[in-house]
Amino acid sequence: SLRRNLGVDLNNEGLVYKSAGNYKQALDRIGQAVDVAREVANRRDEAIALSNRALINRILGRFDQAVGDYELALSIYGQETFKEGEASCHLGLGKLFEVRDLNYQLAFEHYSQALDAYRGLDNPGYTAEALNQIGRVLRLGIDPERTSRDLVFEPEGPVFVAMPPDQALTESRAAYEEALELGRLTGRQEVVWSALQGLGFALWQEGKLEEALARYQEAIDTVVGIWGGSDSELMADYLKDKEDLFTQAIEICAALYTATQN
């Protein structure tokens, strides 16, 4: 029991280092936690530590190591019937397949499994997170040349979502709308700004430039508020994935100026 407690403490210490941006120490402590969990044969503790190590490796861009840890953790969570753990692994794997492989179809499938699990657990906060991921992957995974439901595997380059563009944009918008509602309800500002961007993008594609810009401005204001209020888990990397929020807003402004000369 004492040995098992040590492993839990090492895992928690690793998470503290992660939050502080000290990933080397975080990996060291969580790696020790994995070893202790295996030593005392506590499978759930092992899976939790593996999931945390996968997250850190994902942050560091060590995608292959992260996939391996997530897949092993997912297998253990399934054996332990720990649905929340399974859902978190599906979210992590979805993100990895989206970023590492540009495999939007596989990412969509993992996000959808996470969404089903979180709905079943009646967890509105993480339901919002899963919906937000689905909205984004449908938006990014649209193949402009596809008109049928047949999935085409490209020899190189992205694997697009297996649905027609109009359907993907409609489902993306629906996911973002629910994510925005739940994000506001649960105070998850990261979900809120991303959902606002996604809804703005849909309006942009419909040619509703002024409505789109209003959504983007709300999203930007939310991001600036989070950044300025130190309300982000990883402040050092906070603006890394937000470049397109600003560049798309600039494009909408340029299109509005062209149309109105205002």
- What structural class do helix, strand and pairing data support? mainly alpha
Which percent band covers the strand fraction?
A: under 5%
* Main sheet attributes: strand count, strand direction, barrel closure: none
Radius of gyration: 20 Å
Order of helices and strands: HHHHHHHHHHH
Uncertain spans, ≥5 residues at pLDDT below 50? 147-155, 231-236
Estimate the mean pLDDT confidence: 90
Principal-axis shape equals elongated
Helix content: over 70%
**Span between N and C termini?**
70 Å
The strand count comes to 0
Counted by DSSP, the helix tally is: 11
Topology summary:
Layout: H1 2-19, H2 23-39, H3 43-59, H4 63-80, H5 83-100, H6 104-120, H7 124-140, H8 165-186, H9 189-205, H10 209-228, H11 243-260
Helix pairs in contact: 1-2, 1-3, 2-3, 3-4, 3-5, 4-5, 5-6, 6-7, 7-8, 7-9, 8-9, 9-10, 10-11
